[in-house]
Amino acid sequence: MVENRNQEESRDMSQKSRRGFAAMDPERQRQIASEGGRAAHRQGVAHEWNSDEARRAGRKGGQIVSRNREHMSEIGRRGGQSSGGRRNRSQQEGTETSE
Questions:
Q1: What are phi and psi of 5, to 5 degrees?
Q2: Percent of the chain at pLDDT above 90?
Q3: Beta-carbon neighbour count of residue 29 at 10 Å?
Q4: In angstroms, rounded to a whole number, what is the distance separating the alpha carbons of residues 75 and 69?
Q5: What is the sign of the dihedral through the CA atoms of 31, 38, 46 and 19?
Q6: Residue 48 in domain
Q7: Between these two residues, 82 and 92, which has the higher pLDDT value?
Q8: Owning domain of residue 86
Q9: What is the pLDDT of residue 74?
Q10: How confident is the model at residue 99 (pLDDT cuts 50, 70, 90)?
């Protein structure tokens, strides 16, 4: 009996429609969020980052991202392809003008 009720509840949860903020189009969500941010600044309760806080947050984010070795490999591969392409083009231009 308990199993049946749990199955029914989980089925009901998966069939629920999106409501409220989640159902709004992204532009309307941005508009509401922006209004909230402006209101917080007007009231003086908005968080303002100082350079030390921003530095620590950036370092923390970088450490988390760098744990994903596959992601870091892809970044390195793209950077190498990009710089290699520039290097090849500049070498070709150099040989064309010297001939």
A1: -65, -40
A2: 43
A3: 13
A4: 10
A5: negative
A6: no
A7: 82
A8: 62-99
A9: 92
A10: very low
